[in-house]
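Review form for a predicted model. The reviewer records the input and the model, then writes brief findings.
Reviewer: anonymous (R2)
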Amino acid sequence: MTQALSGLCQSTDEQHLPTAPSKPALCQTKSFRESRPSIAGPDTPEPPYPIPLEGIVQHGFGRGSKDLGCPTANLPDESLPHMVATVEPGVYFGYAQVLPAKGLESKLRPEDEQVWPMVMSLGWNPFYHNERMTAEIHIMHDFPGDFYGCNMKAQVLGYIRPELDYTTREALIDDIETDKKVALASLARSGYETYISDPFFSR
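Model under review:
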């Protein structure tokens, strides 16, 4: 799991994601783990939030479910430059919605198309030594299967923690589980729950 970030290249007709981290990720420590707050952010989102994201779900590394027990959906690179230019790599929370892509057969059930809490990692996943920046979203809902090729919308509403490196997979999994709990507790406040019905999401 992912405040301006240096290294974003921009031209008049295209934008690119950074090709290398601006600085090495800090390593997770016992003191950091024990001092983590149970709720992140103020009682209502403050600038630069909300940050809207949208794109077709891409194939990722396939590690979320297999290695970490946390299935994630990857957004395409072209949906990320605005967020990358606004915040640093780290873990964020908000809401997300998955919708069928036009013209494609959908396996989604009606409840799968609702707006659900999400936690998002933006960065390089230093534990796995990624060579490119990714945005991976874990939607806190039990989908019946994958939804590659579907359209995903997300409203990023707050920041949980910086991107960290880990000495063990177990430590990474522990932090991911804490991230989920922090996201749910943070979104339970009325100033955040209102975004479930935000016009950005389709009905």
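Findings: The first strand starts at residue 9 and ends at 10.
Further findings: The longest helix spans residues 169-187.
Recommendation: see findings above.
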